[in-house]
Amino acid sequence: MTSSHAVRVSYHVPYTCQFATPDLVADFLFDGCPLQTDPNWAASGANSPDEYAHWAMRSCGVVAVKMVVEGLGGPVRSVMDWVQAGLALDGYLTQLREERPVEVGWKHSVLAGLAQAYGLHAELLADVDLAAVAELIRADRCFLASVSSEVGEGTEADTPITRRNGHIVVVHGLVYDDDAALTHLLLHNSSGRTPALRADARLPVARFAQAFSGRGIAIGP
User: Fold this and answer.
1) CATH class entry, domain 5-9+17-220
2) Please, what is the average pLDDT of the chain?
3) Which of 1, 53, 127, 173 is the most exposed place for a label (fewest CB within 10 A)?
């Protein structure tokens, strides 16, 4: 039987779900349960259920920064505090396409700036491959990877990967087999549908590669 060993960043990265009640993520995203009914919506720091519902669907980028900043000794702030900090920097991008506004998502430059405001090193990266991701982890830097949200919807058998962006996860560890081959990435996925797909999710390298845009943000001390 093949064994494995993990390599992680030296600091503990706490997990935050972008939804106030993690056990209801699948209900919200798969079953059409209104987000306004989340019984813990106020814990997000939102002023109303509607404000919570809007940003719970759009907060993966700032939640990823929140997790790493807290892991490196920064303050514990609510999700909405991070949303507002990003919005204050014009960090959420909407573009006009065919005279219609289309949401693009969080600007990576602004997410990096939010981390830099706490004295952390943050670098925008493009054309990144798996070897480069592994090198970052070994250099004690987390990697905020731009991926498809499909990585948190299920396994390869029941959820195919059809795109390569739209969501951000925090890669904070690696798993190798006895032959020193990289088999899995360890990551925090703020919108994973099940517990196994949320905190410390073990994502097979092939599935990560299928979902990965090649872009992201390296953050470390």
Assistant:
1) alpha beta
2) 94
3) 1
